[in-house]
Design goal:
mainly alpha, elongated
Length: 100
C-alpha cells in the first residue's frame, strides 16, 4: 500500500510541474505585468480589509454606546424605585410613631 501511495504522490508532483510550465508558457502577460496586477489586487484587498475593519469598529462602538445608554436607564430606574421604597418606608414608620 505504501508503494501505491508513493506512486500517487510522484504523479501529483509531475502534474503540478507540468501545470506550472503550461501556465508560464500560456500566460497572457509578461512577468512584470503579472507582478503589477498581483500588486494592484493585493492593494485592493488591503484597502477592502481596512474599510471593513473600520466599519466593524464603528458598529461595535455604536453597540457599546447603546449598551451604556440602556445600563444608565436601568440604573436610573433602580435608583428611582429605591428612593420611592425608602420614602414609603419612612412615611410608614413615621405614621406608626404617633401617640402611644
Amino acid at each position: 500500500m505504501s508503494d501505491r501511495d508513493g506512486n500517487n504522490f510522484v504523479w501529483f508532483l509531475a502534474g503540478l510541474g507540468i501545470g506550472a510550465v503550461v501556465g508560464v508558457l500560456y500566460a497572457p502577460r509578461s512577468g512584470d505585468e503579472t507582478r503589477e496586477a498581483l500588486r494592484a489586487k493585493a492593494d485592493e484587498g488591503r484597502d477592502y480589509v481596512k474599510n471593513r475593519a473600520r466599519d466593524a469598529k464603528e458598529q461595535a462602538s455604536g453597540w457599546v454606546d447603546r449598551g451604556k445608554d440602556v445600563l444608565n436607564k436601568q440604573k436610573e430606574q433602580f435608583r428611582s424605585a429605591y428612593e420611592a421604597g425608602r420614602q414609603a418606608y419612612q412615611e410608614t414608620t413615621a405614621e406608626g410613631e404617633g401617640p402611644k
